[in-house]
């Protein structure tokens, strides 16, 4: 009984075949070029395996409203080759199986709540801090969705008093993503995050911004677990700083679980997304 999963990212597509428990049996990856170049390779991979259903976690923004005429499309992405691309339809046409379609972060949240750090919980948040910032939320056992998927990376935050960087978001300049995603760190400090490991000011500022976002997510959603993934969060030393800032911002108003257990890296590591995609595949059959 095999299922397929796709983690479609801005730089690479990870495709996997797995079992009904989300265990990965085979995986492969392709660079994200144009749809004409990348999608046929993806389809060819899945046609070689007998899969019952497919789950897709995609970069976005995407249309996940099943009532919409453009459900399953990638919409206004800055990756122009993919703008208004009918992603789900392209897969469905060739594969003819049930396909679950959601955002990369929602699918990672699904992976972590089913098999990872939030296993057994009804409410969790998965946040990626990488090329962009995005979050997926499981609320009362379901992926949070309104007219569209949430875009929690673009909330506004209070500026750090020593930060004069204008911000990198093309829409809002100094929203959270504009101040704290990987490219913002690189532009503000003139070096990539990985090369700034020993510069404590960088991580103090980073923690200040991320902790503000977490405070707001905590107050609005009351998640039982907060999982922070993505390239920038490979800097493990930022976790204690984030926890300290969250404690200080919340200031005892809400009683939180011990923060070392509450704000954590993904326990599925880099497999959170692809594992969640396999779980979404199984769910899409019901
Ligand atoms: P994507 O967001 O494209 O899926 P990543 O999550 O790896 O990919 O995010 C890429 C961003 O994270 C880049 O801005 C990169 O500089 C930064 N990054 C990647 N690895 C590290 C690291 N070990 N330490 C700090 N920053 C990193
Ligand atoms: Zn923004």
TrEMBL record:
It is an enzyme of class 2 (transferase). PROSITE patterns: ROK (PS01125). Keywords: ATP-binding, Carbohydrate metabolism, Kinase, Magnesium, Metal-binding, Nucleotide-binding, Transferase, Zinc. Its EC number is 2.7.1.4. The keyword ATP-binding applies. Pfam families: ROK. Its cofactor is Mg(2+). It comes from the Bacteria. It catalyses: D-fructose + ATP = D-fructose 6-phosphate + ADP + H(+). CDD domains: ASKHA_NBD_ROK_BsFRK-like. Gene3D superfamilies: 3.30.420.40. GO terms for molecular function: ATP binding; fructokinase activity; metal ion binding. This is fructokinase.
